[in-house]
Automatic annotation (TrEMBL), chain A:
The gene is leuC. Catalyzes the isomerization between 2-isopropylmalate and 3-isopropylmalate, via the formation of 2-isopropylmaleate. GO terms for molecular function: 3-isopropylmalate dehydratase activity. CDD domains: IPMI. Heterodimer of LeuC and LeuD. The keyword Protease does not apply. This is 3-isopropylmalate dehydratase large subunit. The keyword Nuclease does not apply.
TrEMBL record, chain B:
GO terms for molecular function: 3-isopropylmalate dehydratase activity. CDD domains: IPMI_Swivel (cd01577). HAMAP family: LeuD_type1. Residues 6-123 form the Aconitase A/isopropylmalate dehydratase small subunit swivel domain. Pathway: Amino-acid biosynthesis; L-leucine biosynthesis; L-leucine from 3-methyl-2-oxobutanoate: step 2/4. Heterodimer of LeuC and LeuD. This is 3-isopropylmalate dehydratase small subunit. It catalyses: (2R,3S)-3-isopropylmalate = (2S)-2-isopropylmalate. PANTHER family: 3-ISOPROPYLMALATE DEHYDRATASE SMALL SUBUNIT, 3-ISOPROPYLMALATE DEHYDRATASE SMALL SUBUNIT 2-RELATED-RELATED. Belongs to the LeuD family. LeuD type 1 subfamily. InterPro entries: 3-IsopropMal_deHydase_ssu, Aconitase/3IPM_dehydase_swvl, AconitaseA/IPMdHydase_ssu_swvl, IPMI_Swivel, LeuD.
Length: 469, 196
């Protein structure tokens, strides 16, 4: 029977199955960071338990780490959390990309960079954006700290098999339209709950044409559509990306692995519980105007009005969002002025993201009154970007070029947007207070963020791209 | 984990949908390395103004709801991050039950690991309970064994729950200890697991 990739990976990881119970699934890779792990390690210590498979764990610190003036960590509580991870990794024998290590970075950036992320693996992390790794055809999802402890102790998780969903993106993407715009368009079209309880596979011509880094952007925001996980069947693009990476199989083993990886792709004629379709050529660069990722629209459009919604609860959600965001109904998106630009996060901080933003700002200056900064997703990304001179392009344009970390995506470190001020951000969530109490976040692609930095307000980046062409 | 079966309490009507984990527990409170003590930070930016004073018209600050153990909200409760600090804060504040038409997956999972009962009722039922609770304090009895929520007006709302998770909550089981009983199966799986 034809199977989709979700069913193939699930079925091959069932350790134990019994009617009336969830399945006991084996976990191939457990990624660990400083914020959601300390209580799990403490739980192990209190119960006198060991980490069952430290060789299947990998840790780094990313959420709390400062992005300037290193190695100083000013916040004593953050420092304690960071040091606690280092101590736990040492005590339990888990490999750590520690502060200052060349492999350190955002956990969802370094997993793929190091080749830890591979097709067919079950991957978990105490972080909802674990869905990123689905770009490789892995079944990757975020878990809570109790589950982190469960995986540390048993290398398994009890999971009820969720229904599957196909989101097919047909046709070709327009010039200047990014992977970020695809996923923001999907969430704007169907809402932040569309994927709740489901695992999504993204398919279609527009998805096939994406690079691995672009696929990661799409899968990263699956959780913003409510999905448990989102993945893309592996193909030659996937295989080519992994070849030669530190943890990827070597030599003839790589060829064997590649054959297996390609066999995981969804079978012709397989089925899904739900199928949704969108045409890529309908998608334009998107800017979010509200306080959840579905509250977004094309850059050429306007902020919605009450009359655009039918239900009282949607009208009231609109009013609450606009009051928080300081926007008017019907206001053109291009009239929204910004004071901050953040290029970074596990969604959009990889080399191609930085290249795309740099191509827009090259030879130009950040608009007066705008503070703009770039936070590369990992130290390896930072080094690669510096090697091709991207840091200089950003610095000459008036951007700050920072050290790596999660930074202003969630503002756990000092990188906070002040109350009432507006940020064009390449991150993944625009919830109230996400980037700082009272801060107003607009989610956009790296190129859109770069163009906003130059002009001081949102602008259709296709104008720039056309000029370049 | 504390077992849970019957909870009698006034409901706290939080008439919002898409209540995300950033609102439940804001990032500045995630740096603690303990599981406890998060209750005072629950819904911090909705409960307190920039000077740290209580915002009097926020539902949890109203005296009639202060000792509530049952939180009722609208659709997609707990969306956003995987932070278990969210259910820890809810539990530490004093809630044992959250009622909503739907929950985000990770939050929903996290509840069961902490002895919090997430109850899904229909949107109409939640709207009705919210309306009653906003009009006047509404006392209900939640009975997990019977899978019912019974109002002091006699109205009974029934809910479904996965039987496995129901037993976990009723018994307060430690899931890791349960899984250790499958050690043979885990070892057998590891022996045949293909690694390239």
């Amino acid at each position: 029977m034809a199977k989709n990739i979700i069913e193939k990976i699930w079925d091959s990881h069932v350790v134990y199955q019994e009617a009336g119970k969830p399945d006991l699934l084996y976990i191939d890779l457990h990624l660990i960071h400083e914020v959601t792990s300390p209580q799990a390690f403490e739980g192990l210590r209190l119960a006198g338990r060991k980490v069952r498979r430290p060789d299947l764990c990998f840790a780094t610190m990313d959420h709390n780490v400062p992005t300037k003036n290193l190695p100083t960590i000013n916040d004593p509580i953050a420092k304690k959390q960071i040091m606690t991870l280092a101590e736990n990794a040492k005590e339990f024998g888990i490999e750590l990309a520690d502060m200052g290590h060349p492999d350190q970075g955002i956990v969802h950036v370094i997993g793929p960079e190091l080749g830890l992320t591979q097709p067919g693996k079950t991957i978990v992390c105490g972080d909802s954006h674990t869905s990123t790794h689905g770009a490789f055809g892995a079944l990757a999802f975020g878990i809570g700290t109790s589950e982190v402890e469960h995986v540390l102790s048993t290398q398994t998780l009890w999971q009820t098999k969720p229904p599957t969903m196909e989101i097919r993106v047909n046709g070709k993407l327009g010039v200047g339209v990014a992977a970020k715009d695809i996923i923001l368009a999907i969430i704007a079209k169907w809402g932040i709950g569309v994927g709740t309880g489901h695992i999504v596979e993204y398919t279609g011509e527009a998805i096939r044409n994406l690079t691995m880094e672009e696929r990661m952007t799409i899968c990263n925001m699956s959780i913003e559509a409510g999905a448990k996980a989102g993945l893309i069947s592996p193909d030659q693009t996937t295989v080519d990306f992994l070849r030669g990476r530190r943890f990827a199989p070597k030599d003839e083993n790589f060829e064997k692995a590649a054959k297996y990886w390609l066999s995981l792709a969804s079978d012709e004629g397989c089925s899904y519980d739900v199928v949704l379709e969108i045409d890529a050529d309908e998608i334009e660069p998107i800017v979010t105007w509200g306080t959840n990722p579905s509250m977004g629209t094309g850059v050429s459009k306007t902020v919605p009005t009450s009359s655009d919604f039918d239900s009282e609860s949607d009208k009231s959600a609109l009013q609450k969002a606009l009051a928080y965001m300081g926007l008017e109904e019907g206001q053109p998106i291009s009239s929204i002025e910004i004071q901050h630009v953040f290029i970074g996060s596990c969604t959009n901080s990889r080399l191609s993201d930085l290249r795309s933003a740099a191509s827009i700002v090259e030879g130009k200056k950040v608009a007066p009154g705008v503070k703009a900064f770039v936070v590369p997703g990992s130290y390896s990304t930072k080094a690669a970007a510096e090697k091709e001179g991207l840091d200089k392009i950003f610095l000459e344009a008036g951007f700050e070029w920072r050290e790596s970390g999660c930074s202003a995506c969630l503002g756990m470190n000092e990188d906070i947007i002040p109350s009432g001020e507006r940020c064009a951000s390449t991150s993944n969530r625009n919830f109230e207070g996400r980037q700082g109490a009272g801060a107003r976040t607009h989610l956009v692609s790296p190129a859109m963020a770069a163009a906003a930095a130059i002009e001081g307000h949102f602008v259709d980046v296709r104008k720039y791209v056309t000029q370049q062409v | 984990m504390e077992p849970i079966n019957i909870v009698n309490s006034v409901i706290a009507p939080l008439d919002r949908k898409n209540v995300d984990t950033d609102q439940i527990i804001s990032k500045e409170f995630l740096k603690r390395i303990e599981r406890t003590g998060f209750g005072r930070f629950l819904f911090y930016h909705w409960r307190f103004d920039e000077q740290g004073n209580e915002i009097s018209d926020f539902v949890l600050n109203k005296p009639e709801y202060k000792n509530s153990q049952i939180l009722v909200a609208q659709d997609n409760f707990g969306c956003g991050s995987s932070r278990e600090h969210a259910p820890w804060a809810i539990l530490d504040y004093g809630f044992r039950v959250v009622i909503a038409p739907s929950f985000a997956d990770i939050f929903h999972n996290n509840c069961f690991k902490n002895g919090i009962l997430p109850i899904k009722l229909t949107e109409t039922e939640c709207d009705e309970i919210l309306a009653k609770g906003l009009k006047a304090p509404y006392d209900v009895e939640v009975n997990l064994e019977a899978q019912t929520v019974t109002g002091n007006d006699g109205k009974v709302y029934s809910f479904n729950i996965d039987p496995y998770y129901k037993q976990m909550l009723l018994n307060g089981w430690d899931e890791i200890s349960l899984t250790f009983q499958y050690e043979d199966q885990i070892r057998a799986f590891e022996e045949k697991r293909v690694v390239y």
